[in-house]
Amino acid sequence: MAVSRAAAVDEQLLSFIASRPAARLHKSPSDRLVESDPLRVCDAVRLFEAQIQSRLLDLTARELKARGESFYTIGSSGHEGNAAVAEFIEPGDQCFLHYRSGAFFCALADRMPGPEGAFDVLLGLAASSDEPIAGGRHKVFGSVTLGIPPQTSTIASHLPKAVGAAIAIDRRAHLKGETSRAIAVASFGDASLNHASSQTALNAAAWATFQRVPCPCLFVCEDNGFGISVRTPKGWVDASTGGRPGLRTFTANGLDLLEAVRVAREAVAYVREERKPAVLHLRVVRLLGHAGSDVEQLYRSRSEIEATEAQDPLQRTVSSLVEHGAMTPEAIRSVVDAHRARIAALAEEAIQRPKLETRAAVMAPLAPHDADRVANTARAQVADEARRHDVFGETLPEDEERPRHLAVQLNRALTDLLLACDEAIVFGEDVAKKGGVYHVTASLAERFGVGRVFNTMLDETSILGLAIGAGHQGLLPIPEIQYLAYLMNAIDQLRGEAGSMQFFSNGQFQNPMVVRVAGLAYQRGFGGHFHNDNGIAALREIPGVLLGCPARPDDGVKMLRTMAAAATAHGRLAVLLEPIALYMTRDLYKPGDGKWMAHYPAPGESLAIDEVGVVGDGEDLLIVSYANGFYQSLRVAQRLEQDGIRVRVVDVRWLQPLPIAAVVEHARATGRMLVVDECRASSGIADTLVAEVVEATEGRVRTARVTGADSYIPLGAAANLVLVQEEQVEAAARKLVEARRVEVA
Q1: pLDDT digits (tens, 9 = 90+) for 228-247
Q2: Three-class SS of 299-354
Q3: Enclosing H/E stretch for 453
Q4: Does residue 126 contact residue 70 with C-beta atoms inside 8 Å?
Q5: DSSP label at residue 398
Q6: Confidence at residue 740, expressed as pLDDT on a 0 to 100 scale
Q7: Reported confidence tier of residue 155, pLDDT bands at 50, 70, 90
Q8: Backbone phi, then psi, for 193, in 5-degree steps?
Q9: pLDDT value at position 272?
């Protein structure tokens, strides 16, 4: 069974060119190809050359793969009509391209200064560290100068951030007192249209424009009728995208370059002028199967494959150029041969270029962090005193004698950030007029207006997509996810999109944001597992994420400032996990003692990401915890001290990266470490802390853990059966100390 049809498709195109009747040129390069068309002859020829480059890159990828020199064979053959869309892209537009938009990339690269189109793609195929966007980490279409953030998504998870970028374009311009013509463009396949992320994005765009919120986003659905081997029902794309309020659909035959150009021009003009979203449905075909490894003959008959190959869009473009007198068949063959020779030579050069050779080189873009730069940025993110007095009144929060709880102090910290950073925006479900479910954002919308503090729809994917897009547009997004469990609906927007952007762009594109998540458990009498969730593994496993969890009010303020500074200075993805049960907590040891409240830290004060909180200097036992566990551990420590057990309690504060060095130092000083982890045993930080300490001390520190059960959290008092309780902490602490005393005796 013949698997590869690459040679056949290539030969058919060459034979088709040779079979065209001789034609006489009768157009000057500046003339319109057809009077009703927007294309000049020279533009039509240039687009054809982009199509040819894209095709030859696909063929070259397979040739190199057969030699063991290439690592990627998903191509754009049959989709070359997407070059038409690139013709109307302007500087300032942002394009999120999926993996079959090769002709789009080549066409835009040929039109604008910057990347070396075909050679850049070849470097990506060869996984060379010289590749200018991803540095050999993946084969992507991307370019800073062209405004193309690299995408690795196969499931259209880039569409929500395209909507976010589109909304942010006009919002940012409005905040600066300007207007913008820029748009966002996102291409994707017909199979991906069925993915939740696609439906979310289309719905969010329609929802926004339904409320007259500008959303200049063009969705380009490249419909080849297949998702690997699964067929798309005929008519499904138009049926699925049509009928949505505020979302107009344009349909074009992507096999006919001239028609695709006409319709693309109309669609782009509509989005650009009306500031509304639209879908451009390009009907194309898929040639050469899904990828080089796809045995298309297993699910398509030979006759069907050959019928599809007969629809090759390059053959259609050749016919148009010849029929309209733009090029002769001989000139077309010369162009093809010239590009073939050029790409072959460039491919040989690309495979000789260096590769990534060390772990450090691979990971270099993941989590850039200069502690001094972050601290200095935090100190700089302070508004002038007069502006602060305008909002806070006669007494500034740091001058107030009365200490306050976590929710109030976070509100003040957000206020200060919005005052100091004009690019900061706060958004999420219920954050505006209501002030958030726990009033953390109370009065912010009143103080700063709906342009900077606003409600979103109830959809976490859309919220995070908006945050990613806003970051791409130079804003500092501070989205709120109302409950930790809700984040799981949208975690790929952090893991697969925001978290990976610096990695796959070699640090050239960033997704700066501070995601506020209300979470963890101990909400007495409320919620069940959706409102009480104690699983953080999905967050901690995101490479490069900065995850902090404040227990005390003053720590919450300083950690929020650190995260905003890290996002500003380094484009970091930061998540502030705020323990709901401690939002309003005032007392620690007994009712009315007020020992869990704190004064507002002076503006500019922040916390280094390796800085832990330490209470006590006892040498009998170290208790390491965070959030509610830290609160419980302090109460237990007081009782232990009364019995002569000298304890020190460490609040790690930072859950990713963990402050291992600081914990090891305190563990060595005591010789015994109890980790109190309120999260589920399989989802928290206890295992990592114990392993790191044991390895660092070569087993000389005795360790123990108290964790939550691997269970969902039920309603009512039954929750206490699966959550860490003070009695468990105290029993484990006494057992650990007693075991050491027995050893010594």
Answers
A1: 999 999 999 999 998 899 99
A2: CCCHHHHHHHHCCCHHHHHHHHHHHCCCCCHHHHHHHHHHHHHHHHHHHHHHCCCC
A3: strand 453-455
A4: yes
A5: G
A6: 63
A7: confident
A8: -60, -25
A9: 98
* β-strand pairing of 647-651 with 613-615: antiparallel
Torsion of the alpha carbons at 281, 287, 290 and 293, rounded to the nearest 10 = -170
213 CB-contact burial (10 Å; exposed 0-12 / middle 13-18 / buried 19+): middle
The residue written with tokens 């796959």 in the block is: 504
- Mean of pLDDT over the chain: 95
Backbone angles phi, psi at 568, to 5 degrees: -70, -45
Rg (CA), the chain: 30
According to DSSP, the β-strands at 621-625 and 647-651 are parallel
Report the distance separating Cα 492 and Cα 146, nearest Å.
Answer: 26
Query: From the CB of residue 366, how many other CB atoms can be counted at a distance below 10 Å?
Result: 15
| Residue range 6-31, pLDDT digits in tens | 999 999 999 999 999 987 887 788 88
Q: What is the DSSP letter of 128?
A: B
Give the pLDDT confidence of 587-608 residue by residue, as tens digits: 999 999 999 999 999 999 999 9
Name 479's bridge partners: 427
* Encoded amino acid at 336, one letter: V
Whether the CB-CB separation of 357 and 371 falls below 8 Å is answered with no
Region for 717 from its dihedrals, namely left if φ exceeds 0, alpha if ψ lies in -120 to 50, beta otherwise: alpha
- Average pLDDT on 120-126 reads 97
Question: How many other CB atoms are found less than 10 A from the CB of residue 363?
Answer: 14
Q: How much is the average pLDDT of 201-210?
A: 96
3-state secondary structure of 125: helix
Prediction pTM value: 0.95
- Per DSSP, the chain holds a count of helices (H) and strands (E) of 27, 19
Token pair 């040498």 is found at 619
> Residue 726 and residue 706: Cα distance in Å, rounded?
10
Angle formed at CA 191 by CA 186 and CA 196, multiple of 5 degrees:
70
* Statement: residue 1 has pLDDT above 50: no
354, 129 Cβ separation under 8 angstroms:
yes
Candidates 443, 456, 493, 449; CA nearest to 471 is 493
